[in-house]
Known about the structure:
Strand order of the largest sheet of chain A: 4-3-5-6
Number of strands of chain A: 6
Helix content of chain A: 40-55%
Number of domains of chain A: 2
Oligomer: homodimer
Shape of chain A: globular
Order of helices and strands of chain A: HHHEEEHEHEHEH
Strand content of chain A: 5-15%
CATH architecture of the largest domain in chain A: 3-Layer(aba) Sandwich
Largest sheet of chain A: 4 strands, parallel
CATH class of the largest domain in chain A: Alpha Beta
Amino acid sequence: MEFPSELIEEAVREISKLPGIGKKTALRLALHLLKEKQATTEDLTEALLKLRKETQYCDTCHIISHTTDCTCRTINTDQSVICVVVDTPDMLAIRSTGQYKGTFHVLGGVISPIEGVGPEDLHIDSLIKRVQESAGEVQEVILALSATMEGDTTSFYISRKLEETGVKISTIARGIPIGGELEYADEVTLGRSIVTRTAYLSGE
Amino acid sequence: MEFPSELIEEAVREISKLPGIGKKTALRLALHLLKEKQATTEDLTEALLKLRKETQYCDTCHIISHTTDCTCRTINTDQSVICVVVDTPDMLAIRSTGQYKGTFHVLGGVISPIEGVGPEDLHIDSLIKRVQESAGEVQEVILALSATMEGDTTSFYISRKLEETGVKISTIARGIPIGGELEYADEVTLGRSIVTRTAYLSGE
């Protein structure tokens, strides 16, 4: 596509570097900013720059935080359990269920030989150290990774590493989603949901 | 959704003001920028600010241009015909077909009483003036607006205004898209394609 101005060409090139945004969407966004007040663009760019420059990560759990009081150190958080997640959105999703009050540990990715990501690129060593140094305060580690090949590999690797610490290791339940129809469930999930069946609680 | 940091909350709020981007996508984009090098964010924000601050519009045809040589004044452009479009993407789409070598005129919107857009908010007067002041050089005005109620209203209004100038007024052809199946065409389009049938050219 030939653009009427170098400015718009440059903006479209930069915007379309973002994941999931193609050239057409980038052009639409650029033209939208041109129609809005200058302050809209200024607020947006300032927020992005500030985010990139000032964001820090907690040394303990690797959650994003720009202050030194990370949620993993606050009193309301249950320090006896660590939920291991791949990245921030997973943590937010689990926290917003309201069913979990413990701490988190962000891995920053999954083991993927194809993409050249090994265990040393993830925050696994710091998880082991965290469990060891808690001197028994951490009683359970919940592995909350995706049920993909990479996720399962990573879960397996972490569980082997954690074995020597003697901490209880659990994983989030896999099964038929609530509201899901049995008929449309895939065989693997359905099979697993029978193997890992749980006691029936009335009112569930 | 509760965010782990005010910086990310602020960035998500600003990003999700863009059209078609919700909070989840905004969070994904913000986390992407955090993972990339700082230069990526700097290049993006610089391009956006530059676009918003330095973009100018041609006085004649209202196309975006940051220099004074707008395409409407270059020698290679056919000055005898003006194609009227709603906005820049429409112009780019027509230009990229390679079938049109004339000038453009960007209206900046369509007449829409519901949204409070009247003829005086669009670049209609400047179009009339442009045709009048060309002293016969402009021989044809092509109306290339969408076939919606607002587009048709705007086309009708412009055609009435242009009548007194004596310029030839045409509109882009409406009909069955090339590659389209008759069976699936809507009745209105099919009916119009019969009424406005054209001479058969072999090789078409």
